[in-house]
Design goal:
The protein is α/β, with parallel strands linked by helices. The protein contains 18 helices and 14 strands. The strands form two sheets. A seven-stranded parallel β-sheet has the order 3-2-1-4-5-6-7, with helices on both faces. Strands 10-11-9-8-12-13-14 form a seven-stranded parallel β-sheet, sandwiched between helices.
Length: 432
């Protein structure tokens, strides 16, 4: 069955090239070093010994940054081979590199491409972040005697059922991993159901991430100039912006002296995917709003005289989430108002910004439940309820808002996964 799958992946290579060129029109990063995806590299062959760390996208790359900081402290001089699948992940990953490290695209999952990758870089171990698993990676690593470890591993109920429908393919892949280090017991149970060897439940690496101090300082300085609280819709996905704008439009009809009036706050939106920044800005204008874009700010969001009660702020930059959370008094959690599974709320709470989440958080179920139990997050039924809840939440002063203090307690209580993960990895990092 693996041979049939591999043949299909081989036939799909022209479609992948076409997709990369199409996406590259919106995100130029996808046009970078395309041949790396098929196992052809501009770098000279290496002496090997790399620790291969795979972080498919932006969220996994943030988790990789947390892990690598502790890993380098435990193993000074370690050389990292960092791979990604998305342009945003690769762009963020550049900041994690040190002298002697390499960064390339993940190999397409054909036996030949994976073999070329392994022969060229000769990694001594592969560390995969969270969910990304490919059958030929496992098969070829086993053949080359390269241990492959899944860390910070998570598995939603939905993903488990999808994998079970392809058990003929997924089960050998999960069984072929050297070990799995899960985020939660629920993740561990689902991964074991798929055949994985789960050796430990260590928590979520992202709790150990520290918000960018300079961004928080900038946010707090700008916040001092504001006369209204800020409510953020963070990491919004397609369709959610329209829900949000519909809700704001409906609230425009409420008398202006009402405490839930939309003009009681500044509204900030940060789309999940950068290729949609212009599309979302156009949608706002089409709905009759003015737009103030982060890319045009110099001294803060209100320096422009055009910013008034009918202006929405658009966060159209990468790598500044701490700035946006620090500026905000409450965050509506993108991905949770459409059936998309939600986004990670840990960074928001680490910045002291309480979260309001919709009904769909299955991708981060345990973190969402823990945050809700701690009072760092509130759950609502839909976007309309989220907006009105946010307006009520920020009507209190910061000293009266119990959810802000709950964020700090929640973030502190769940740290330590990075140290535990590195300790579990040490047997795989020893050199002969």
């Amino acid at each position: 069955m693996l041979k049939i799958y591999s043949l299909l992946m081989w036939f799909l290579q022209p479609l992948l090239r076409r997709k990369l060129h199409r996406r590259g029109r919106e995100e130029a990063g996808y046009l970078q070093a395309i041949e790396e995806r098929f196992g052809y590299y501009s770098q000279a062959s290496t002496e090997g010994g790399y620790v291969w760390v795979h972080a498919v996208s932006l969220g996994e790359t943030h988790a990789a940054g947390v892990l690598l900081q502790v890993l380098r402290a435990a193993q000074p001089g370690i050389r990292i081979l960092l791979t990604h699948g998305t342009a945003t992940g690769r762009a963020q990953g550049v900041s994690l590199l040190q002298d002697g490290d390499e960064q390339v695209w993940q190999p397409w999952d054909t036996p030949a491409a994976v073999q070329r990758f392994l022969v060229h870089f000769k990694p001594r171990v592969g560390i995969i972040l969270e969910t990304e698993l490919w059958p030929n990676w496992v098969a070829q690593c086993n053949q080359a005697q390269v241990p492959l470890v899944l860390v910070n591993a998570r598995m939603s109920e939905k993903s488990m059922h999808q994998a079970q429908r392809l058990a003929w393919l997924s089960r050998p892949a999960y069984q072929g991993l050297s070990t799995v280090l899960a985020q939660t017991q629920a993740d561990a149970d689902r991964l074991q159901t798929l055949g994985a060897k789960v050796d430990a439940v260590l928590g979520n690496l992202k709790f150990d991430a520290r918000p960018d101090a300079s961004q928080l300082a900038q946010a707090h300085a700008w916040k001092e100039t504001l006369n209204r609280p800020v409510v953020l819709l963070t990491s919004s996905r397609e369709g959610e912006e329209a829900m949000w704008l519909d809700t704001l439009q409906a609230l425009k009809d409420i008398p202006r002296d009402h405490q839930d009036h939309i003009h009681a706050v500044h509204w900030l939106l940060v789309p999940r995917h950068p290729q949609r920044f212009d599309e979302v800005a156009a949608l706002m204008v089409e709905r009759g709003w003015k737009v103030s874009r982060r890319s045009q700010w110099v001294d803060g969001p209100v320096a422009d005289n055009s910013v008034d009660a009918n202006t929405l702020w658009l966060g159209d930059s990468l790598g500044e989430m701490a700035l946006y959370y620090g500026l905000s008094d409450a965050a509506l959690l993108g991905g949770s108002f459409a059936p998309l599974g939600g986004q990670n709320l840990i960074e928001s709470t680490a910045c002291g910004c309480p979260v309001i989440m919709g009904p769909h958080t299955f991708n981060f179920a345990e973190a969402a439940q823990l945050a809700e139990d701690a009072g760092a997050a509130l759950r609502v039924e839909d976007m309309a309820q989220a907006v009105t809840t946010a307006l009520q939440m920020v009507s209190f002063s910061p000293h009266e808002n119990v959810h802000i203090e709950a964020c700090k307690v929640f973030s502190q209580a769940h740290r330590g996964a990075a140290q535990r993960t590195v300790q579990a990895l040490l047997p795989y990092l020893k050199t002969d």
